[in-house]
C-alpha cells in the first residue's frame, strides 16, 4: 500500500512539472510568434496646425497654400489612447481561462484513470483474480497504451497528450520494478536491460516531443536502475561504464535542447550511484578504476558544460539563467572530484594525489580559458577559485616546510601577473589570496639549527621574499586600479608589506641573536618606524605614515617596559640610550607633520610624547641609581630637582622656539612638581633633604617669574612676531 501511495505521489509530481513546462512552452511560443493582444479599434488623434494670423497670410499665394499643407502633414500625430479592454480582449481572456481549465481536467483525468486502474488491480489481486505475471503484463500493457495514445493525440491535443506519455512511462518503470523486486519473476540482468530500454525509449520520446518532463522522467529511471536492481555484488566496470554512457547521452540531448535540468540530474544521479557503490564495495584493489571514473566524470562535466556554454553563447540561444546552471555544475563537479580523490588516494596512494589534483587544476583553468571572453562574472570566479584550490592542494600534498612556502609564493606571483596581463580581476584576486596563504605559512615555519645566522637564513629569506611579493602585487594593483576594491587592495598590500618586514626582522632578532636580543629588538622598533615614516612622507602615502605612527607607539611602550641589563652607569646605559633614541625619533616624525595642516594634531601629540618620555627616562634612571633603601631621601630629592629643572628648561625652550605647547607642558610639570614637594617630600624626606627641596623649588620658581616679569615686553613682542609671521604665511 505504501508503495502504491508513493507511486501516486510521483504521478502528481510529474503533472506539476508538466504544468510548469507547459506554461514556459506557451510563453516561448507567444514570444517567438510576436503575437500581442491589442484592442480592436485604436482611436487616432490628429493634431491640426494652428491657424496663421490674417496679417501673415496672403490670399492667392501658391506658396502659402503649399506651406499650410506641409505643416499639416508634419504636425499630424497618431496617438493611441488606452481604453478599457474591448470585447475581443475579453473573449481572449475567456479562452485562456477555458484552456487552463481543460488542461487541469486532462491532468485530473489521467490521475483518476491511474487511480482507478490501481484500485481495480488491488481488488483483483486481493481476490486472487490476477496472478503476479498477469499484474505485470497488465501494467506493461496499460503503460504502453498510454504512450501510444499520447503519441497518437499529440498533434490534436498538444501538451495534454504528453501527460499521457509521462504516465505511461511511469507505469512501465513501476511494472518492471515490481516484476523483479516484488515477485522475482525475472532475473536481475533481464530487468535491468528492460529498464534501460524503457529509459532509452523515454529519452527518444522526450527529444521527439521536446518535452523536458519526459527527459527528467527518463533519466530519473535510468540513474535509479542501479539502485533498484542491485544484487549486492560488486559490478564496478559495468556500473561505471553505464553511468558514463548515460552522462554522454545527457550531454548529447543537452546539445540539442539546452535542458540544464538534465545535466544537473545526471550529475546528482552519478554522485549518488557512486557513493552508494563506494560505501559497500570500495577497496584497495579497485581504487585505480574508481579514480579513472572520477577523472572522466570531472573532465566531462567541467569541460563539457564550459564548451556548451561557449558554443550556445555564440549562437545567442541561451536562457538568461543558463550561466548560473553551468556555475552550479562547476561547483558540484569540483566538490565531487576533490572529495573523491581525497577519500580514494589520501591513505592508499598518497604519492599520486598531487598529480591528480594538478590535473584537476589544469582542467579548470582550461575551461576558464574557454569561457573567459564571455565575461560571465560568477562563472569566471567559480572556475578560477576551483582551479586555484586544486593547484594549492597539489602543492600542499607535494611539498612541505619552507619548500611549500616558496612554491605557494611562486604560484601567487604567477597568478597575479597573469591576471594583470590578461586584465582579469578574478585571477588577481586568487593570486593575492594564495599570497597571504604563503605569508601565513612562512610565519609558522619554525627556525632550525641552520637558521642561526642573523638575516642570512632560510626563514628570514622567505619572509623577505613575501614582503617583496606584497609590494610587487600592490604595484600590479596600482597599475590596474579597475575598481574601488583594487584601489583599496593596493593600500592594504603595502601596509601588510611594511608590517611583515617589521615583524620578520623582530622575529629574526629574537631567534638568531642570543644575550641582549631584547635590546636589539627595541632598537629596531625605534629606528624602523622613523625610516618608514620618512618613506611615507617622501612618497606622499598617508597610509604608510600612519602605519609608522602605530609602530612608533609600539616602540614607545617597548622602551618603557624594557628592563635594565648588563653593567649600569647613570645616564650611560642601554635603556636610557634607547629612551633617548625613541625621544629623538618622536621629534623627527613630529617634524614631518609640522606643515601638514590636516594632521597637525599628530605633531603636537608626538611632541608631548617626546617631552614626557625624556622626563620619564631621566626620572627612571635616577630611581635606578638610588635604588637602595638607604638612599631613598637622595632619590626623592634628586627627582624633585630634576622635575623642577626640566620644567624650567621647557619654559625657556617654549619661549625660544615660540611653542605654546612646550610652555603648557612646562607649566603642567611645574604643578606636578609642586604637588610632589608639598605632599610627598614634606612627609617622607629628612629635614636636610626637605630644606634643599623647598629652597630649590622656591629659587627656580621665583627666578622664572622674575625673569618673565623683567623681560615681559621683549617676550611678548617676540611671541607676537611669530604670530604675525604665521598670519602672513597663511594669508
Total number of β-strand segments? Answer: 0
* Secondary structure tally, helices: 25
The percent of residues in helical segments reads over 70%
**Which oligomerization state do the chains in this entry correspond to?**
single chain
Helix/strand/pairing category? mainly alpha
> Separation of termini?
97 Å
Low-confidence stretches: 1-18, 34-86, 722-731
| Count of domain modules | 5
What's the overall average pLDDT, rounded? 75
Structural Rg:
44 Å
What's the main sheet like?
none
**Series of H and E elements:** HHHHHHHHHHHHHHHHHHHHHHHHH
Tell me the β content: under 5%
Tertiary shape: elongated
Keywords:
731 residues, mainly alpha, 5 domains, disordered C terminus, disordered N terminus, 25 helices
Structure description:
The longest helix has 40 residues, at 87-126. Helix 4 runs antiparallel to helix 5, helix 8 (236-257) runs antiparallel to helix 9 (260-281) and helix 15 runs antiparallel to helix 16 (458-480). The model is unreliable at 1-18, 34-86 and 722-731 (pLDDT under 50). This protein has 25 helices and no strands. It folds into 5 domains: 1-22 and 101-205, no CATH class; 232-378; 399-511, no CATH class; 515-621, no CATH class; 626-731. The chain is mostly helical and 731 residues long. It has helices spanning 2-33, 62-75, 87-126, 132-157, 159-182, 188-209, 212-228, 236-257, 260-281, 287-315, 322-345, 353-371, 377-398, 401-421, 425-444, 458-480, 484-512, 517-538, 542-560, 574-592, 600-625, 632-656, 660-684, 687-710, 712-730.
Amino acid at each position: 500500500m505504501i508503495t502504491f501511495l508513493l507511486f501516486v505521489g510521483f504521478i502528481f509530481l510529474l503533472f506539476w512539472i508538466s504544468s510548469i513546462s507547459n506554461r514556459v512552452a506557451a510563453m516561448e511560443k507567444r514570444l517567438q510568434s510576436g503575437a500581442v493582444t491589442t484592442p480592436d479599434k485604436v482611436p487616432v488623434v490628429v493634431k491640426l496646425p494652428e491657424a496663421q494670423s490674417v496679417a501673415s497670410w496672403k490670399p492667392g499665394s501658391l506658396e502659402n497654400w503649399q506651406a499650410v499643407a506641409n505643416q499639416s502633414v508634419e504636425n499630424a500625430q497618431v496617438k493611441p489612447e488606452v481604453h478599457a479592454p474591448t470585447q475581443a480582449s475579453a473573449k481572449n481572456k475567456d479562452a485562456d481561462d477555458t484552456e487552463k481549465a481543460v488542461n487541469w481536467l486532462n491532468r485530473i483525468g489521467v490521475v483518476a484513470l491511474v487511480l482507478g486502474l490501481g484500485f481495480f488491480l488491488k481488488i483483483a489481486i486481493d481476490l486472487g483474480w490476477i496472478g503476479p505475471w498477469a499484474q505485470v503484463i497488465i501494467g506493461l500493457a496499460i503503460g504502453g497504451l498510454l504512450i501510444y495514445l499520447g503519441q497518437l493525440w499529440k498533434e490534436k491535443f498538444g501538451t495534454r497528450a504528453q501527460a499521457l506519455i509521462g504516465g505511461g512511462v511511469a507505469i512501465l518503470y513501476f511494472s518492471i520494478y515490481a516484476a523483479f523486486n516484488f515477485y522475482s519473476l525475472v532475473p536481475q540482468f533481464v530487468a535491468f536491460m528492460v529498464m534501460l530500454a524503457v529509459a532509452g525509449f523515454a529519452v527518444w520520446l522526450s527529444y521527439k516531443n521536446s518535452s523536458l518532463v519526459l527527459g527528467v522522467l527518463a533519466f530519473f529511471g535510468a540513474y535509479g536502475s542501479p539502485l533498484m536492481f542491485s544484487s549486492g555484488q560488486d559490478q564496478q566496470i559495468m556500473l561505471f561504464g553505464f553511468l558514463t554512457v548515460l552522462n554522454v547521452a545527457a550531454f548529447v540531448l543537452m546539445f540539442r535542447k539546452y535542458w540544464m535540468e538534465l545535466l544537473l540530474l545526471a550529475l546528482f544521479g552519478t554522485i549518488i550511484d557512486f557513493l552508494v557503490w563506494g560505501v559497500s564495495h570500495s577497496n584497495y584493489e579497485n581504487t585505480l578504476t574508481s579514480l579513472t571514473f572520477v577523472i572522466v566524470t570531472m573532465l566531462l562535466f567541467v569541460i563539457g558544460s564550459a564548451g556548451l556554454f561557449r558554443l550556445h553563447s555564440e549562437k545567442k540561444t541561451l536562457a538568461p539563467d543558463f550561466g548560473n546552471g553551468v556555475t552550479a555544475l562547476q561547483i558540484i563537479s569540483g566538490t565531487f572530484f576533490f572529495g573523491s580523490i581525497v577519500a580514494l588516494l589520501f591513505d592508499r596512494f598518497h604519492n599520486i594525489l598531487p598529480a591528480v589534483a594538478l590535473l584537476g587544476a589544469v582542467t579548470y583553468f582550461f575551461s576558464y580559458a574557454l569561457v573567459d571572453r564571455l565575461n560571465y562574472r560568477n562563472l569566471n570566479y567559480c572556475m578560477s577559485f576551483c582551479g586555484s584550490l586544486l593547484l594549492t592542494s597539489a602543492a600542499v600534498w607535494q611539498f612541505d616546510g619552507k619548500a611549500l612556502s616558496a612554491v605557494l609564493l611562486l604560484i601567487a606571483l604567477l597568478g597575479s601577473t597573469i591576471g594583470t596581463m590578461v586584465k582579469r580581476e578574478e585571477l588577481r584576486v586568487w593570486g593575492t589570496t594564495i599570497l597571504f596563504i604563503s605569508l601565513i605559512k612562512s610565519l609558522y615555519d619554525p627556525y632550525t639549527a641552520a637558521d642561526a645566522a642573523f638575516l642570512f637564513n632560510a626563514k628570514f629569506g622567505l619572509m623577505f621574499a613575501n614582503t617583496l611579493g606584497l609590494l610587487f602585487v600592490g604595484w600590479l594593483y596600482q597599475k590596474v586600479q579597475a575598481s574601488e576594491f583594487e584601489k583599496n587592495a593596493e593600500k592594504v598590500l603595502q601596509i601588510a608589506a611594511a608590517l611583515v618586514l617589521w615583524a620578520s626582522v623582530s622575529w629574526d632578532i629574537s631567534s638568531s641573536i642570543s644575550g641582549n636580543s631584547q635590546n636589539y629588538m627595541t632598537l629596531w622598533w625605534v629606528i624602523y618606524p622613523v625610516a618608514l615614516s620618512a618613506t611615507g612622507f617622501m612618497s606622499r602615502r598617508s597610509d604608510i605614515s600612519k602605519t609608522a605612527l602605530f609602530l612608533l607607539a609600539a616602540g614607545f611602550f617597548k622602551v618603557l617596559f624594557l628592563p635594565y641589563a648588563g653593567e649600569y652607569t647613570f645616564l650611560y646605559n642601554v635603556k636610557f640610550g634607547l629612551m633617548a633614541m625613541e625621544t629623538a625619533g618622536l621629534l623627527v616624525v613630529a617634524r614631518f607633520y609640522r606643515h601638514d595642516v590636516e594632521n597637525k594634531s599628530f605633531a603636537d601629540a608626538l611632541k608631548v610624547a617626546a617631552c614626557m618620555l625624556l622626563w620619564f627616562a631621566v626620572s627612571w634612571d635616577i630611581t635606578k641609581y638610588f635604588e637602595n633603601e638607604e638612599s631613598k631621601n637622595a632619590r626623592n630629592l634628586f627627582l624633585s630637582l630634576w622635575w623642577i629643572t626640566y620644567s624650567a628648561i621647557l619654559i625657556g625652550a617654549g619661549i625660544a622656539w615660540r611653542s605654546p605647547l612646550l610652555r603648557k607642558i612646562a607649566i603642567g610639570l611645574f604643578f606636578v612638581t609642586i604637588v610632589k614637594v608639598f605632599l610627598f617630600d614634606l612627609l617622607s624626606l629628612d629635614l636636610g633633604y626637605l630644606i634643599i627641596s623647598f629652597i630649590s623649588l622656591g629659587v627656580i620658581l621665583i627666578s622664572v617669574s622674575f625673569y618673565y616679569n623683567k623681560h615681559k615686553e621683549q617676550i611678548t613682542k617676540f611671541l607676537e612676531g611669530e604670530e604675525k609671521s604665521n598670519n602672513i604665511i597663511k594669508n
